[in-house]
Automatic annotation (TrEMBL):
InterPro entries: FAD/NAD-bd_sf, FAD/NAD-binding_dom, SQRD. Pfam families: Pyr_redox_2 (PF07992). Residues 11-286 form the FAD/NAD(P)-binding domain. Residues 333-351 have a biased composition (Basic and acidic residues). This is Unannotated protein. PANTHER family: FAD-DEPENDENT PYRIDINE NUCLEOTIDE-DISULPHIDE OXIDOREDUCTASE (PTHR43755:SF1), PTHR43755. GO terms for molecular function: oxidoreductase activity. Residues 333-352 are annotated as: Disordered.
Amino acid sequence: MDPRAASDRPAVVVVGGGIAALELVLALHDLAPGRVRVTMIAPEPEFVLRPLDVARPFTRGHADRLDLAGFMGEHDGRFRRTAVTGVDAERRTVRCSTGADEPYDVLVVAVGATARPAFGHSLTFGSDLLAVGGLLADLEEGYSQSVAFVVPVGCTWTLPVYELALMTAQDVWGMDVHDVQLHLVTPERVPLEAFGEEAGAAVAELLVAAGITLHAGVRADVTRNNHVDLGDGRDLHVERIVALPILDGPRVAGLPSDAQGFLPVDRFGSVVGVDGVWAAGDATTNPVKQGGLACLQADAVATCIASHAGGHVSPMPYVPELRGRLLTGHGDRFLRRGPGETGRSEADDRPLWWPPSKVSGHYLSPYLEARGLVHLPVREDRRTAGIDVQLRPG
Ligand SMILES: Cc1cc2nc3c(=O)[nH]c(=O)nc-3n(C[C@H](O)[C@H](O)[C@H](O)COP(=O)(O)OP(=O)(O)OC[C@H]3O[C@@H](n4cnc5c(N)ncnc54)[C@H](O)[C@@H]3O)c2cc1C
């Protein structure tokens, strides 16, 4: 370590207080200790682990939170609570909704995406926890007897709706309610297509065993209550419909964006055509919006910033390896897809990585695990899990 006077260290401003932002701060703390001054800017004072929202209707009310000011203090950084309204890349400042502009030498945008309902006549999963919880109660008490879980066209991270369907099945069958029909409707050719053939076949088996009817390869629409238009004139009549949302990009004023508002980045996370600006996570044009991939992007960005700041690390590009821990209500299923078109597809009921958290981050998972914020399955299975790649020499 070669700590410099604070004024000599480049000012790194991280916009966002979510998964990518936390992973980035942890990575910089490890890869460039004492070499950068890090400020995190976010409108909310706490980080909330959203992926556990899936399980929340079933566990009824558990929340996992982290105080961001405390987190930044612990990592030699500073937290500023406000929203960023734009970037002046010429002057190297960000504009904030309250207070003065924030100057930066290096900017990392990790503001995530905005979810909006895919259809006007369905519940939107992820934004209406109470309604999803109410749906379970209705099924258990016999007020509703049929549900369709729908993946809209354009949604790339579909695992949460499979979890919801499987856990709903487990819940209602476990309550001895047997006259319920559950459907899963998706444009994917096979279940969880992003994970490849092996994982898809394993999840298809789980759906059959859970009594869930799969409608794959369907570009569904929901234009009236209780009806899912399956295309080709086919129509599914159900009492309740739950759909995943569509994600829109953040359209950050002063930075480039694609037609959907996402930030274009190269394979190191550098925002195309803008000096000193990087981006990671759901805010970028990376097609699959997933927490583990957001962490891998943040790690790539951190190696570049640390390398420029004189840390003992070389810039490493983003190499996507997809990892998913599927909650089924009766044991978890671990799914993994290696990088590239031909990446190996795996499914196992034992952990394929460690710690086997739902959001797999090289730094974030162990950090959250140490604070009791990750709910792990059996610890003995560590032997079977893969070893993570080191980002810096040992
Ligand atoms: C129900 C559900 C289940 C999921 N399950 C999984 C899972 O099992 N595994 C997995 O890996 N992923 C899962 N995901 C996806 C995962 O949550 C996202 O991919 C991940 O959160 C993206 O991280 P991010 O840091 O890019 O964005 P986010 O985590 O959304 O964080 C964005 C941050 O930016 C802040 N922000 C927004 N606007 C501004 C602004 N103008 N100025 C400053 N700050 C701003 C926000 O307050 C927030 O702190 C799930 C998502 C949902 C909705």
